[in-house]
């Protein structure tokens, strides 16, 4: 089991979700976050407001997958998020020690779904 964490541009969320659904990856958590990478010196205006402290709006996706879904998940995120420009984002892969479905108390890969 793996936990895939992706940081992407907010305007790419719908495209990434579409690609994930095509790859039959349906379980994800989405959070709005602030951060910066290499473009830290760039000031952006988002919805008419200048970003504070050079932190840019990003979207964080968290997706728990069984091992055989790892590569399809990575490829789907890249297909949906890639523009070829600085700031496209990052994907982090972490080992997932345990997963427990609260409703049924199932554990492990079965709990992921």
Shape: elongated
Number of H/I helices = 3
Give the fraction of residues assigned to helices.
10-25%
Q: How far do the termini sit from each other?
A: 11 Å
CATH-derived architecture:
2-Layer Sandwich
The order of strands across the largest sheet is 2-5-1-6
Largest beta-sheet characterization: 4 strands, antiparallel
Describe this structure in words.
There is one protein chain. The model has no long low-confidence stretch (mean pLDDT about 90). The protein has a single domain, classed as Alpha-Beta Plaits. Strand 3 and strand 4 form a beta hairpin. The protein is elongated. The chain has helices at about 15-20, 70-80, 110; strands at about 1-10, 30-35, 45, 50, 55-65, 90-95. The chain has a four-stranded antiparallel sheet with strand order 2-5-1-6, with helices on one face. It has a two-stranded antiparallel sheet with strand order 3-4. The longest helix has 12 residues, at about 70-80. With about 110 residues, it is of the alpha+beta class. Helix 1 (about 15-20) runs antiparallel to helix 2. Helices cover about 25% and strands about 30% of the residues. The termini are close together.
